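ok trying again, last paste got cut off:
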Amino acid sequence: MSLELLACAEMTEADRRAVAAGVSGAALMEAAGAAVARRARELWPAARRILVLAGPGANGGDGYVAARRLAERGLAVTVAALVPPERLSGDAAFMASRWSGAVTPIADADFGAADVIVDALFGAGLSRPLEGAAADAAERANASRTPILAVDVPSGLHGDLGAPLGRGPVVRAAATVTFVRPKPGHVLLPGRTLCGALTVADIGTPEAVVPSLGVATFRNRPALWSGALPRPATDGHKYRRGHALVWSGPEFMTGAARLSAFAAARVGAGAVTIAGAPAALRVHAAHVSAIMLAEAVDADGLEKLFGARRFASAVVGPGAGPGVEAAARAALDGAESAVLDADVFTAFAGRPDELAAAIRRAPARPVVLTPHEGEFARLFPDLTDGSKLDRARAAASRTGAVVALKGADTVVAAPDGRAAIADNAPPTLATAGAGDVLAGFCAGLLAQGMPAFEAAAAAVWIHGEAAAGFGPGLIADDLPHVAPAVLARLLGAPKDS
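nice, full thing came through this time. structure:
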C-alpha cells in the first residue's frame, strides 16, 4: 500500500506530469472511468440499473466512460447530466461523444429506479459548496437510499480538508474510487465516513511521477517508521534501552501517571521511574513492581532528580495537577526528550509562544505534544482555520515540537512539514485514560532513541492496533498489556516468544 496522500494541487500536478511524460489525458480518463465501472460490478454484482450523475468537468468525463463500460456489460445505464453534453470541452467532451445511450437532464432523473448511483458530479477540485441543480441532485441521491459509488470524492466534499464545502450538501457514498493516491480528505473525518469503502485505482500514471512531487503527507502505516523502530540488542542492558520518567500528580490523581509509566515500559523502555510527592508514591507503591519510584515534591525536586540521573525521556501532564508548568519546564531542560500532555496545555492556555520558547531552549531535544481537540483549542486559540492537518502543522511549526493532534483521525505533524494521518483507531479507543497510555508509548519509544516524528507516529499506530486487538470492553488499563503482541508482529517475532 502506498503511503502518500496527495493534496488536490499535487494531484493536478501529477496529472500534468503524466501528460508531459507522454500519457494522454484521454487515456487517464478512460482508465479512471473503467476503474469505476469495474468497482461497481465488484460491489453490486446483482445490480442491473445504473444511474450516472455526470458533472461539467473531468469528473463528469469519468462518469461517461463508466456509463459506456457498464452498458457494454449489458446493464441498463442512464446518464443524468448537469449540463448538456454539447457544452462539455476537452477530454470530457470526447468521452461524452462516445456515449450512445440515454442522457437526461439531472432534474428529471429517477433516483428511485436505480440499483446503483454513480456520483460523477464533481471531484476533489471543487472549491465552492454545491448549489442549484447539483445540490438538489446530491440531496435526492442521499434520500433515495440507493447505494452510491463516488468518483474521486463524494460531490461536495473538500478533498484536502475532509469536510463539506461550506453549508452545501455532501453525497454520502457507500464506496469511493479515487486515482493514483488517496487525498487527505479521504482519511480525515468526516470525509472518511462520507467516502465509504475506498479504492485507489492505477490509471497509468508513470511510477516516477509521485516521488517527484516531494509529498510530505502520509497515511500512518508501519512502512513510514518501522525502519526506526527500536530492536533490543543481544548485548544490551536496561539503561541502554532508555530510562523514562513520569511526573506524578497528587495522591488522589495517580492513575494517569501509572498508565503512562506502564505504557512506556511495555513498549520497550528499559527502566521507568515515577517521580512525585511521598503521599502519591505510597499509592503508586501499592500498584507497581517493575516501575521504580523517586521522590520529587515539586519542580525543584524534579530538577535535582534530572541532575542526579540520566533520563532519556520524560512525561509531564497526565493527572499532573498543581505545579505542572514548572514541572514541564524542568523536564524540557533536564530530560533528553519530553512528552507533554493533558494538564500542561491547560497551564499554558493561550500562551503557546511561551511554551515554544521553553521548547526551543534546547532545539536538538525531541519534544512531542499530544493534545486532544479541546486541549489544542485551549493552547492555540488562534489556530481555528483549516483542516486538522493544517492546524497540527501550524502548531508544530510554531512550537518546534512534533504535535500529535488526537482523535479517530490523529494527525502527527513535524516542524519540518511532514505529517501522518491515522485511520486505524477503533471506536472503543474513546475511553478515559487512553491518552495517558499514548503519552507513555511515545516516551517509551523516545527513550530508546527513536526520532520524535517516527516515535509519535508509531505510538499512535500501536495505540490503535492494541485497541483493535483487544476488542469490545476495552479500558485504558488494557492497552499496555496488548501492546507486546502488536510489537511482536512489527518486529517479526511470534506472539508467544
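cool. Residues 37 and 69 are 6 Å apart (CA to CA). The mean pLDDT is 96.
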